[in-house]
Amino acid sequence: MTEQNNNKPVPTEAGKKAMLQAVKGMNDILPPESARWEWFEEKVRSVMARYGYANVRVPIVEPTDLFVRGLGEVTDVVEKEMYAFEDKLNGDKLALRPEGTAGVVRAMIEHSYLRDGGKRLYYSGPMFRHERPQKGRSRQFHQFGVEALGFAGPDVDAEVILLCRLLWREVGLVEGRDLRLEINCLGQSDERRAHREALIAHLTAHADLLDDEAKRRMHTNPLRVLDTKNPAMQVVADAAPKLLDFLGEASLAHFNGVRAILDAVGLAYTVNPRLVRGLDYYNLTVFEWITERLGSQGTVCGGGRYDGLIEQLGGKPTPGVGWGMGVERMLMLLEEAGVQVPAAVPTVYAIVPSTGVLNQAMLTLEALREAGVSVQMHAGQSSMKSQFKRADASGATYALIFGEDEVAQGLVSVKHLRDANVAQATRGLSTVSDWASELRNA
Predict the structure, then answer these.
(1) 183 burial type by CB count under 10 A (0-12 exposed, 13-18 middle, 19+ buried)
(2) pTM, to two decimals
């Protein structure tokens, strides 16, 4: 990923227009880095298909009120980070989406999409938050997310967590070594209300130990105080009342149901009573996949249950559970874990030494591509030596050499570029379909 430091025009010579740069914190993704993204995206889509999750696509721009109502007015995202603006053409208050769930839920309500039962969905694309750009945290970032809507049981909570585990294995990560799972239960609103009162009383009694941010949040969003990264407040947070102690029978049964499934399939986890997530819509199960390889950017995937969100946004009461995963952080983790992503290279590089054979070369290469062979052709005229250098640098396994003498005989030479022990051979130009599979299966 190519990162830009600012969006100020770069000074140029007098009389020339200044060079424009990308907006600060919004990065270009160029080859060969983009090939790593495509590889990872393909892995995610493959796993989604195996679990029966269908793709949903919603707008990047939504009404600002969707996120204010959905995420919570006193969350960091809404208060500090959201790109919100007024449409100068009609005065609409709009926002670039800071996360994916609210938009998916809005779409479900608007199109009555859940009228015939539950749906398993996934989304992908860019999100936007006005944060201080740093490694692993950009103002435009990318996420995959899943949303299982209309399913109330702990089985689907466990399913979306296990979907992650399969994905980690598919991309070469190992749970327990490269990342670990933490879970918690936030209960229902009445249980959180009772815990909130006890928590505020605890924080008030230790107000002299709280930092300014904690004091500000103490009465508006006290659960977030427990998620503090301030070392000086850890003692206060550790001694705070535990939400798990306030859970009723039904909430505990749901949480124990999730745990029983994870235990049965051998997925290790830690119950973290201070895990709360950053958005207001969560209830019951919450979870995070965390790595130690990325320092402070350790959470690569997180989510949970949000049974009240659809009703909160104007729909009928409907349960839901899901997660969001940062693509940039996942790619950073793969690199730190030493996972080798296959390079995106052609199978064949075509060497065309003269314009006299160009038409025949083009005809042959199109036939190979139609047969499923990846072919890159040398563009323009240059020496054979130069073309072979380009062929080697391309990473291709084979070179097809369209020499004038061979083409006149209805042949093309095939040279293995990675194994000198394989003898150069010729193949008939009129029988491409017969030997294309040799190249395709190399």
Answers:
(1) buried
(2) 0.88
